[in-house]
Amino acid sequence: MKRKNKRGNNRDERASFIVDMFREFPDNKFSLKHLAAASGGADRDGRNMTFAIVRQLIEDGFVEEVSRSKYRLARTALPRYEGVVASATPGALYVAVESLESDVYVARRNGGGALDGDKVELVVARRSRDGELEGTITAVTERSRRPYVGTVEITTNSIFVTPESRRIGTDIYLPRKRYPEIEEGDKVSVRIVDWPEGERLPFGELVERLGKAGDNDTEMHAILAEFDLPYHFEKNVIRAAERIDGTITDEEIARRRDMRDRTTFTIDPADAKDFDDALSLKQLNDGLWEVGVHIADVTHYVTPDSVVDNEAVERATSVYLVDRTVPMLPERLCNELCSLRPNEDKLCFSAVFTLNENIEIVEEWFGRTVIHSDRRFAYEEAQAVIESGEGDFKEEILTLNRLAQALRKERFKHGAIAFERDEVRFRLDEKGRPLGVYTKVQKEANQLIEEFMLLANRRVAEFCAHRLSNGRKVPRPMVFRVHDEPSEDKLERFRDFALRFGHYFKAQKGRAIAKEMNKLLSSIQGKAEANAVTTLAVRSMAKAVYTTDNIGHYGLAFPYYTHFTSPIRRYPDMMVHRLLASYLAGEKRGDKKLLESLCVHSTEREIIASEAERASIKYKMAEFMRDRVGEEFDGTISGMTNWGAYVELNDTHIEGMAYLRDIDYDDYYYFDEARYEIVGRSSGVRLTLGSPVRIRVMGVDLNRRTLDFKILINKH
Questions:
Q1: Helix and strand tally (H, E) in the chain?
Q2: How far apart are CA 515 and CA 513, in angstroms?
Q3: SS3 of residue 672 by DSSP
C-alpha cells in the first residue's frame, strides 16, 4: 500500500497522513502498528503518538474500533444514502440512488445481506480507478416483496429452495413442519422475509407450489411467478366480468354511427382468439376511399374503478409466452364481448378516414360505432389473396394493400426507421414440448394491418393533443407513446461497432440519423453480421415509453403518437379511449398527474412482460436442445464478452454461449476489445461478429435457461 503523502514525526503531518489513509481505504481495518509504520515510524514514540492521534479521531467520531486494536473509518464519517438494489450478481450488488449520477457498486461481502429489489441504507466510500462509485450497505430498510422461483431439496426438518435466478446467489430456507405438502423436486415460488445476522441462509415463506419441475405448465407458471405476473384471475374478477351485460340494444345503436353495411373483416394470426381490430372499405366518388379502423369498444363494458378495471390497471398489459397468452382482461371480455368475431354485431370505437389515391386525408371522423364483420382472415389467407389476386374480398384486400404500401413508403420518406429482426417461434405438441423452430416473416398482409393501425394511432394523438380556443391551440392532458432521439454516446459506440465490419455510419443529427440508419440497415441485409448489427442499432435507440409529455416518436417519424388500437391487451389504450370520448363530448377531462402515474406503471409492466416473454423463449430453446447434447451445428458469432462468444445457430436462430477456455486446449484464446475480436495466441485464429463457426452442444441447463456450446477449430 504505497502513499505519496509526506510522512514525518511532526504530529500534524502524521495526523494528516493517517486521516488520508482512512479516507482512501475506508473499508480497511488498520492496526496501530501498521498506522505507525506507514505514517513515519513504529518505534515507541511513533506508536504513542499514533495511539494519541487515533484516540482523538475516535472521540471526534471519525474513526471506530471494529475489533481489538483494529480501526477503520467510522461509517458515520461517510456520505449516507438511501437506495434500491437495482441489480445483483453472485459477487456484487448495484444500488440505485436517486441523487447520484450512477449506481453504486457494493461487493457481496459488504452487502449486509441485501438482495435484489431491497431498499437499503448505504455509505459511499470511494471511486474506483475507472470512476465507479463503491460503497457499503449499512442496513436493509425494507425487503423486496418480489418472489423467487426455485427447486426444492428436503431434509428431515428443513426445506432448501435453490433459486433459478443468478441474482440471489444463495439457497433459501423454509421450515419443513410448516409446509408438509411440499415434496422433493417441486418447483415453488418463495419470498424472503428475514436474514438474521449470523445465519448462513435467508428465511423464506411459501408463495405458491407450482408443480413438478420439468412439467410445461409448471415451467411457464414459474416464469410468470419469477416476474411477479399473474396467471389466473381471482374469482371476484371473473364474477364481475360475467355480470357485465352484453346486450346491444336499439337505443345503444341509435347513439352510434351504424357501419354494418360496410364490407368489414379482421386479419389476425391463425391462432388468435381475440380480434380487437377490424378494417372496412367503401369506394366513394371522385377516386376517394372511406377506410374504417374499428377497435373493440372495451370501455363501453369496463367502467372506471370497477373490479375489472382495477385488475386491468394492475396488469396493464397482456403477457405473451411461447405457448399461451395471459390476458389483461377476463375471457368474458377479450374472447366474447369485445372480440370482433365474424357475423356478429359488435360495438367499436372507430377512426374513419376519407383518403385519395395519394393517401392524403380528405376527411376524418372519430367516434363510437356498431359494425358487423363479414370475414375473419388469418394473415396467411390475406397474404394468399395479395399474392394471387384471387379469393374472398379480393378487391377490398388489394385496394387496402395498395393504400397501405403507399402509407408505408410515405412514412419512410419522412424518416421512419426500418428495424427488421428475425423473431423465433416454436411448433409445440399437445403437451407444450417444442417439435421445431422457425422464424416469423413479416409480409404485406402484416404491413397492411400495421399501416392502418399506425394511421389511427397517429391521428387520434393529434386530435386529442390540443383544443382550439380563440384560434389558438391549447394543450390537453393526453397519453402519448413517445420515443426520444438516440443519445450521441450510444450512436458513437454503434458507429465504432459498425465500422469494424466496414460499414460507415456518418455522424448526423435529427432526422438525418434515421436516413443514415436506414441506408446502413438496407446494406447489411443477407450478410452474416446483419442480426448482430441490427440488434446493436436497436440498442442504440432510446426506449419507447408512455407519458403525458409529448416529444414525438422518433422511430416512426411522427410528431404525435399514441396507442388507441389494442384496448383488449393494453391499458394505455383504454385510457386513450376514455380521453377521446371526453374530448369528443366537449369535456375537459384528464387529471395529468394521475394519467402520468398510470403511464409510468404501464411502461414498467410492459418491460416486465417483455422480459417474461424472452425467458419463455429461452426456456423452449433449452428444452428443444436438451436431447441434442453432443451434436454439432453450424452457427454465427452473435456477441462477445471477455469470457466467451454467443453463437446463433443458422437453422434455428437458437443462441448459446461458447466459453473461451473451451475453444482449443492447445491454444489460449482471449478477447481483444479494441479490435472486437477473439484471438488465438498461438494459432493466430481471429473470430469476430458474424464469423461462421462450427459448434458442439456441451450442456443444457433448463433451470437457468442456458445452452453451453464449444467452438470447434478446424486445424486443417
A1: 17, 36
A2: 5
A3: strand
Give the model confidence (pLDDT) of 525-541 as tens digits: 777 667 777 777 777 78
C-alpha cell at 239: 364474477
Give tens-digit pLDDT for 395-413. Answer: 999 999 999 999 999 998 8
**Residues of the chain above pLDDT 90, percent:** 55
Q: Which CATH architecture has domain 148-213?
A: Beta Barrel (2.40)
What's the pLDDT score for residue 410? 93
CATH 2.40.50.700 residue ranges of the chain are 148-213
Neighbours of 671 (CB within 10 A): 18
What is the rounded CA–CA span in Å between residue 406 and residue 388?
Answer: 20
Its pTM stands at 0.82
List the beta bridge partners of residue 64.
72
Architecture category of domain 629-712 in CATH: Beta Barrel (2.40)
Q: Which CATH class is domain 11-75?
A: mainly alpha
Where in the sequence of the chain do the CATH 2.40.50.140 domains occur?
Answer: 78-142, 629-712
Q: If pLDDT is split at 50, 70 and 90, which confidence band does 645 have?
A: very high
The CATH T-level fold of domain 78-142 is OB fold (Dihydrolipoamide Acetyltransferase, E2P) (2.40.50)
| Alpha carbon distance 189, 579 (integer Å) | 39
Tell me what the mean pLDDT of segment 601-619 comes to: 95
Are residues 366 and 319 in contact, defined by beta-carbon separation less than 8 angstroms? Answer: no
